[in-house]
Write a structure and sequence with these properties.
By secondary structure, the protein is an alpha+beta fold. The protein folds into two domains: about 30-145, Rieske Iron-sulfur Protein; about 155-359, Naphthalene 1,2-dioxygenase Alpha Subunit, Chain A, domain 1. It contains eight helices and 19 strands. It has helices at about 15-25, 155-160, 180-190, 195, 230-240, 245-250, 300-330, 345-359, and strands at about 5-10, 30-35, 45-50, 55-60, 65-70, 85, 90, 100, 105, 130-135, 135-140, 165-175, 210-215, 220-225, 250-260, 260-265, 270-280, 285-295, 335-340. Strands 12-18-17-16-15-14-13 form a seven-stranded antiparallel beta sheet. Helix 1 packs across helix 8 and helix 3 (about 180-190) packs across helix 7 (about 300-330). It is globular and about 75 Å long.
C-alpha cells in the first residue's frame, strides 16, 4: 500500500463512524505512551492512564519493576485507583478485595460467602503488555503486538545520545480543544503554513524547508533554526550535555511523529512532548510537556526557559488556526483536501492510517 497520499477525505475530521474505526483498528492495537517514568521513582508509586474508554494502572512494584494492569477489580470490575500517588498495596474501594503491587490477589473479603472457594492465583489483576523507552512507559492492548523497539525502524538508536530519560518537566498540562486529533499532529509537522501562521516567530529564523525521513510508520523532520548566525554554534556547545551527537543533532530541531499520536521536538537541552487523543470526531485532548535536562544551570537553564516561553506562543498561534480549520471543515463544503509537497508528513501519516484501517 502506498504510504504517501495526495488527497484526504474531509470526513476523516468530522465522522463519528470514522473515529470508531480508528479506535478499533489503530488505538486498540498500537503502542501508546501511558505516562512518564519519572512519576514512578519508588516502589508503590503509580499513575492511571484513562483514554479511549480504557483505564490502565501503571506502578512500580516492590522489586522495582514497572508493571501495567487493567484498573478494574476482579470481583465486580470497580475502578481501583485514580490519579497518581503512592500506595503500599491496592484495595478495591467497593468490596475490599486486596492486591499486592505485583498484581497478585492478597485477600478476599469474607471469602467463604462465595458459592465455592476462589483460588487466589486465578484472580490477580489482568496485566497489560508494557515496556519502557525514552523515559516513558508504553502500553498496548494487543497481546500479539511486536516489541516496541522492533517497530521504530532505528529511531531508538538515533535518540540514544539525547538520554531523554534525564529530561524533567518545566510545564505539563492537559486540555481539550475543538478540532480533530489528526489535525494537531499534521499541523506540527507541516511547513507549508509557517510563512503565514508563524510569520513573526519561526519564519524569520528558517531559511530552508526541513528534510523529512520516514521510518516505517513514523517520520522525522529536521529543521535548521537560526543556522546562519555564528553565535548559534557557540551557544549550542555551551548547552549540550549527553551525546555523542552529530553536528545536525546539536544544531537542528528534530521532530519525530511516532505513530499514532506521540510527537516530540528534540534538542540536547530540551524536549517537547505533544500527545493527542481523540475525544470526539471534532475534539481532542492534548497532553503537553515541556522538559529540560535534569541539573540544567546557567546559560543552558536560561536557554531552555526561553525556548519554553517561545514554544508556548507558537502553540497558541497553531491553536488559533486549527480552530479555524475545524470550523471550516465542519461545513462539508470541501469534501476532498489536497496535500502540498510541504505537507509531506501529513501525506505519510494518512498513508499509514490507510494501512492500519485496512490491515
Amino acid at each position: 500500500m502506498d504510504l504517501w497520499v495526495r488527497r484526504v477525505e474531509a470526513e476523516r475530521y468530522t465522522s463519528s463512524d470514522w473515529l470508531e474505526q480508528e479506535r478499533e483498528q489503530i488505538f486498540s492495537r498500537a503502542w501508546i505512551a501511558a505516562g512518564p517514568e519519572w512519576q514512578l521513582e519508588r516502589p508503590g508509586d503509580y499513575f492511571t492512564f484513562q483514554e479511549l474508554g480504557e483505564s490502565i494502572l501503571v506502578l512500580r512494584d516492590d522489586d522495582g519493576e514497572v508493571r501495567a494492569f487493567h484498573n478494574v477489580c476482579r470481583h465486580r470490575g470497580s475502578r481501583l485507583l485514580t490519579g497518581c500517588g503512592r500506595v503500599d498495596g491496592i484495595r478495591c474501594p467497593y468490596h475490599g478485595w486486596a492486591y499486592r503491587l505485583d498484581g497478585s490477589l492478597e485477600s478476599i473479603t469474607k471469602g467463604d460467602g462465595f458459592e465455592k472457594t476462589l483460588e487466589h492465583r486465578r484472580f490477580g489483576l489482568r496485566e497489560v503488555k508494557s515496556t519502557r523507552w525514552m523515559g516513558y512507559v508504553w502500553v498496548t492492548l494487543d497481546d500479539k503486538a511486536p516489541p516496541l523497539r522492533q517497530t521504530l525502524g532505528g529511531i531508538a538508536e538515533e535518540l540514544e545520545p539525547y538520554a531523554l530519560h534525564e529530561m524533567r518537566p518545566v510545564q505539563t498540562f492537559e486540555k481539550v480543544y475543538p478540532f480533530n486529533w489528526k489535525a494537531m499532529l499534521e499541523n506540527a509537522m507541516d511547513f507549508y503554513h509557517v510563512p503565514f501562521v508563524h510569520n513573526g516567530t519561526i519564519n524569520p529564523q528558517v531559511s530552508e524547508p526541513p528534510d523529512l525521513t520516514s521510518y516505517g510508520d513514523h517520520t522525522r523532520q529536521r529543521l535548521d533554526i537560526a543556522a546562519g548566525y555564528s553565535w548559534r554554534t557557540r551557544l549550542d556547545r555551551r548547552c549540550t550535555r549527553g551525546g555523542p551527537y552529530t553536528p545536525r543533532q546539536i544544531g537542528a530541531l528534530h521532530k519525530y511523529l511516532l505513530f499514532p499520536n506521540f510527537l516530540i521536538n528534540v534538542l540536547p537541552y530540551h524536549l517537547t512532548v505533544m500527545q493527542v487523543f481523540p475525544v470526539t470526531a471534532k475534539s481532542c485532548r492534548l497532553r503537553y510537556a515541556f522538559c529540560r535536562r535534569r541539573g540544567a544551570r546557567g546559560i543552558e537553564l536560561l536557554r531552555a526557559n526561553a525556548t519554553w516561553a517561545a514554544s508556548r506562543y507558537i502553540l497558541w498561534e497553531d491553536i488559533k488556526v486549527l480552530e479555524s480549520f475545524q470550523s471550516g471543515v465542519n461545513t462539508g463544503r470541501i469534501p476532498i483536501q489536497r496535500l502540498h509537497t510541504e505537507e509531506a508528513a501529513a501525506s505519510h501519516f494518512h498513508g499509514v492510517i490507510n494501512r492500519w484501517m485496512n490491515d
